[in-house]
Amino acid sequence: MLRLIRTESFKLSRKLKSWLGPQLILVLVLIAFPLSIDISQYDLDKFYFSIIVISLMMTAFISTEGMFEEDFEDGSLEQEFLLEQDFYKIVLSKMLIYVFFIGIPIALIGSLFLITNGADFDDLPKVFSILCLSNILLFNLFSFGNALSINKGAMLGVLTSLPLALPVIILLGRAVRTIQYGEGFFSIIILMSGISLIVLAIMPIVISAALKTHID
Amino acid sequence: MYPYLLFIGITTLMIGWIWGVLYAPEDFQQGNSYRIIFLHVPASIFAQTIYYFMSICALMHIVWRVKLAAYLIKSAAPIGAMITFIALFSGSIWGIPTWGTWWQWDARITSTLILFIMYLGILTLHGSFSNLEKADRLMSILVIVGVVNLPIIKKSVDWWSTLHQPASISTSGSSIDPSMLMPLLISIVGLGFTLISLGILSSRLYILNREKNKKWVLEHV
C-alpha cells in the first residue's frame, strides 16, 4: 500500500496540469463569478457559499477526469493490477492522493474565499471540514463515473456520476444552513463523516469492479 | 403472451381513466385539475418500480452472470426513462393550477429528475461500448450504485419540507376518498400490465437482435 501511495504521489506530482489546473480553475471561477453579476455585497454574502459548492463540484469532476484514463491508455493500470492482483488498493491509494493533493487545497481555497466574502472567521474550521468531507464524497463519485466511462469522454462521465453527486449537493446545502444559522452543525458533520467513511470504504470496491471489466 | 397482457392492460387503464376523468367526484380544493393523478401517480410509481426491477436484474447479472438479466435491464431502461418523463411532465402540468408554477426545485421533483438522468446515463453508457458484454457489466454496476437514489426519492417528502405532498397511499391505509381511490388503483393495475407487456415486447426484440447470429434465432425467425 505504501509503495502504491508513493508511486501515485510521484505520478501526480509530475503532472502539474492534473493537480494545479483544477485549483487555478477554482480560483478563476471564484474571482470571476462576483464580477460577472451585478449584485450587492449583502446578496453576495448569502450566495457565495452556494457558488463555492458548485465550483467545488466542477473542480472535483475536472480533477478526476483523467484519474484512470492515462494509466489505462499506457497500460500501467494493467501492469499494476498484475503486480497487486487487486484493484482495491490501487484505487484507494489513488483516491487518497487525489484528495490530499487536490481535494484539501481546494477546500482550503474555498474556505478562504468564503471568509473574504463576509463569512465569520470563527466559522473557518467548520467550513473547511465540510468542504473536505464533501470533496471526499465528490472525488469518489466522480472517479466512479470516470472509471465507468474511462476513455469515452467527459459527457458520459457526467451523465453517470452527476445523479449520484446531486444528493451530496443537497446535503451540502443543509450543512450551509447549519453554519449560517449556527445550529445543528455537529449532527450534520457526524452524518457527513459517516457517509464519507462508508463511501470511502465501498466506492473503491465498485470502481475496482468497473476497472476490472475494462481490463478483462 | 404479450398481446393479451397489452390488451388487458390498455382495457384496464381505459376503464380507470374513464372512471377517474368522467365519473369520479370533483376535489373540494383542487377542482377538476386533480384528475391528472390517474396518470401522474401510476407513472411515478412505475418510474421507481422499473428501477427496482433493473437493480434486481443487475445483481443477478453481477453475481451469477445471468446474461438474460442484462438483456432485461437494457430493455427496461428506455421504458423506465419514458415513464419517468411522463411522471415529470404530468407533474409539471399539475403544478400550474395547484402551485402556480411548472417547476420547483423541490426534493421530490429534483430526485425524480435525478432518476430520469440516471436512466439516460444507463442507456448512454451501454451505447458507448462496442463490446456488448463489457457494456452489460458496466451498466449493471451503474444500476446497482444508482439504487441509492430510490430511498432518497421515496423519503424526500418526509426528510425535507417540500412543496410536494406526502404519500397518500401507504401500507397503513389511504387518505384518498374511495370514490377516487378505486379508479386510481385500476389505473395503476392497468398501467402495470401495459408496461409489463411493453417490457416483454422490448426484451424480445432486444434478445433477437443480440443473438441474431445464433442458430436458434434463424430458426425462430
Task: Report a brief summary of the structure.
The complex is a heterodimer of chains A (216) and B (221). Helix content of chain A is 87%, strand content 0%. Chain A is mainly α and 216 residues long.
Distance between the termini of chain B: 17 Å
Helical content class of chain A: over 70%
Q: How many distinct beta strands of chain B?
A: 2
The proportion of residues forming helix of chain B, as a percent range, comes to over 70%
Q: Which class best fits the helix and strand makeup of chain A? A: mainly alpha
| Number of structurally distinct domains of chain A | 1
Protein name (chain A): Heme transporter CcmB
InterPro entries (chain A): Cyt_c_biogenesis_CcmB (IPR003544)
Membrane topology (chain A): Multi-pass membrane protein
GO molecular function (chain A): heme transmembrane transporter activity
Account of the protein in words:
Chain A: GO terms for molecular function: heme transmembrane transporter activity. Chain A: Belongs to the CcmB/CycW/HelB family. The complex is a heterodimer of chains A (216) and B (221). Chain A has one domain (2-215). In chain A, 87% of the residues lie in helices and 0% in strands. Chain A contains nine helices and no strands. The mean pLDDT of chain A is 86. Chain B has a two-stranded antiparallel ribbon. In chain B, α2 (37-64) runs parallel beside α7 (178-210), α4 runs antiparallel to α5 (132-146) and α4 (107-127) runs antiparallel to α6. Helices cover 76% and strands 2% of the residues of chain B. In chain B, β1 and β2 (173-174) form a beta hairpin. In chain B, 37% of the residues are buried. Chain B has one domain. Chain B has helices at residues 2-23, 37-64, 67-99, 107-127, 132-146, 149-159, 178-210, 215-220; strands spanning 169-170, 173-174.
List keywords for this structure.
heterodimer, A: 216 residues, mainly alpha, B: mainly alpha, two-stranded antiparallel ribbon, 2 strands
